[in-house]
Amino acid sequence: xxxxxxxxxxxxxxxxxxxxxxxxxxxxxxxxxxxxxxxxxxxxxxxxxxxxxxxxxxxxxxxxxxxxxxxxxxxxxxxxxxxxxxx
Length: 87
Hints:
Elements lengths: L1 H4 L6 E4 L12 H9 L3 E6 L1 H11 L4 E5 L5 H13 L3
Parallel strand pairs: 1-2, 2-3
């Protein structure tokens, strides 16, 4: 990670834990390190994982790709939850 964070032209890191590893929301220290290192961080995560990460680290500097299908109602509910966690 130190080598990646030291690359002057690198602007972001996509974090994919890989099969058999814990989901991204269980890698909070690493995600914080990426963002605190001045990098943008792209994460493929569940809607619940987005809430976990944003509650712990905030959402600035992240691009979240939600990797599950949500119904329109679930999507609206998710957005309301996300908005409520940052008021």
